[in-house]
Specification:
By secondary structure, the chain is mainly beta. The protein is 3% helix and 47% strand.
Length: 130
């Protein structure tokens, strides 16, 4: 009997505007992004990217978001805007106070897996993740 791991979780971000200052969220800055990776080994790996832009929509936008297409791999990692829109690139507005992004984490076989924070780019230090 095979057992599959399917985990729906939330990636949360919050900040205090008084601590950061409004200048920390200037739209002229380079893109603010977070890259997450689900990793078992060099072959069984998947990534998702969360991009913060002040002018981004909260709904799916085919000019900024990229849908996730299921492959034959042993692991899957993607985020959601809605249940019907799994995304590999998820562009969303920068959080006003806090924000949660739904993640789908899937592993076909048992074993040790890691969920890694691969990259944080241009995110103000006052932003906290949980």
């Amino acid at each position: 009997m095979k057992v599959f791991l399917l985990l729906a979780c939330f990636f949360t971000a919050s900040f205090n505007l008084e601590t950061c200052g409004a200048a920390a969220f200037s739209p002229i800055d380079s893109p603010k992004l977070i890259r997450l990776q689900l990793f078992k080994d060099d072959i069984n790996t998947d990534e998702t990217l969360i991009i913060f832009k002040n002018e981004a929509k909260v709904s799916y936008d085919n000019k900024e978001d990229i849908r996730y297409f299921k492959g034959a791999g042993q692991v899957r990692l993607f985020s959601f805007i809605t249940k019907e829109s799994p995304l590999v690139f998820n562009t969303q507005p920068f959080p006003q106070t806090s924000s949660a992004t739904r993640l789908n984490v899937f592993a076909r076989n048992d074993g040790a897996y890691q969920l890694k924070l691969k990259e944080i780019a241009n995110i103000p230090r006052c932003l906290k993740f949980g």
